[in-house]
Amino acid sequence: MPASDTLDSVIKVADEALRTLFAPAHSARTPDLPPETALSEAEKRHAAGLMRVNHTGEIAAQGLYRGQAALSRSASTRAFLQRAASEEGDHLAWCEARLRELDSAPSRLNPLWYLGSFMIGAAAAALGDELSLGFVTETERQVEGHLASHLQRLPAGDLRSRRIVERMKSEESAHAQAARSAGAVQLPAPVPTLMHYAARLMTSTAYWL
User: Which of the chain's ends, N or C, has fewer CB atoms near its CB within 10 Å?
Assistant: First the structure.
């Protein structure tokens, strides 16, 4: 690759990271949300903690997919990852908007999670598109389970957060199915377990920070 193309790629990656982490998120789609309902202060804090976790998960998804797209070997895989990142960008905007409605803010550790996810995505892509797509499938499988648990833990009266999480859960499942259809392979046994523990660390810190 010519030096000028390499420099352009580096600038693009840096620009995407800065926009994701420090610019307001924008959505190309608007979910159909119910009216706001009255929540106690404790319910608002709890809902905000859970939605902050979801926001951090979407930050990590942006890093993962962009890291994978940067080193993907085929144009079709790259296009799939970019489409998925775009939809995840909508999720990011929805979570960010809901945090504002709950008088809260994103996690201060988001730059760390973005960088770590980008490196994991790039490493997966370097091992081949099929394995990279396997990361998508496993990531979305775990995220779908995590969102299902949030539907059980969110305050019953927080209908707006619940609607956002339900929509996200449906689309995460679709991403996993699309990755399988595109040729994803199953990850070696230790990898999903390591991903699970990394996700637990991220979610437990993002709830508070």
Answer: N
